[in-house]
């Protein structure tokens, strides 16, 4: 099973940008679809966006559409979440998850904190 580690979180002013990384190890990452999720204090985990294993298909929650972009670099075994125009309501722990092909996500990282 692939292991995932998120990084890149931090404190950023409203309107600013941040790039999160989801680095994979243990198995080749190129066959995995990857999703980003977030969980704010006292709230349920929510879907942010996803990218297919091929990289040519992405989807986003309406709350981040037009502001967040997911890209993958399989040579680096890493998927990125580029966040722009950050809002206070984007404050949360951000987690990445992976699943082979179009299978459900079954590997999760520990998360990285983003505060706006």
What features would you describe in this structure?
It is globular, with a radius of gyration of 13 Å. The protein is built from no helices and eleven strands. The model has no long low-confidence stretch (mean pLDDT 96). The strands form two sheets. Strands 2, 4, 5, 6, 9, 10 and 11 form a seven-stranded mixed sheet that branches. It has a four-stranded antiparallel sheet with strand order 1-3-8-7, with no helix packed on it. The protein is mostly beta strands and 116 residues long. It has strands spanning 3-7, 10-11, 18-25, 32-39, 46-51, 58-60, 68-73, 78-83, 92-100, 107-108, 112-115.
Profile the largest sheet.
7 strands, mixed
Helical coverage, percent range: under 10%
Unreliable segments of 5+ consecutive residues: none
Strand tally is 11
Sum up the overall morphology in one term.
globular
* Radius of gyration over C-alpha positions, nearest whole angstrom: 13 Å
- Number of continuous helical runs: 0
Estimate the mean pLDDT confidence.
96
Strand content: over 45%
Structural class of the helices, strands and pairings? mainly beta
First-to-last CA distance: 33 Å
Q: Report the order of strands and helices.
A: EEEEEEEEEEE
């Amino acid at each position: 099973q692939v292991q995932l580690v998120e990084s890149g979180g931090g404190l950023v002013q409203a309107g600013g940008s941040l790039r999160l990384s989801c680095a994979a190890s243990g198995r080749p990452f190129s066959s995995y679809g990857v999703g980003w999720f977030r969980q704010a204090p006292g709230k349920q985990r929510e879907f942010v966006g996803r990218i297919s294993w091929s990289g040519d298909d992405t989807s986003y929650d309406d709350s981040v559409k037009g502001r967040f972009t997911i890209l993958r670099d399989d040579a680096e075994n890493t998927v990125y979440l580029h966040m722009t125009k950050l809002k206070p309501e984007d404050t949360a722990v951000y987690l990445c998850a992976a699943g082979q092909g179009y299978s459900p996500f079954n590997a999760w990282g520990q998360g990285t904190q983003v505060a706006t």
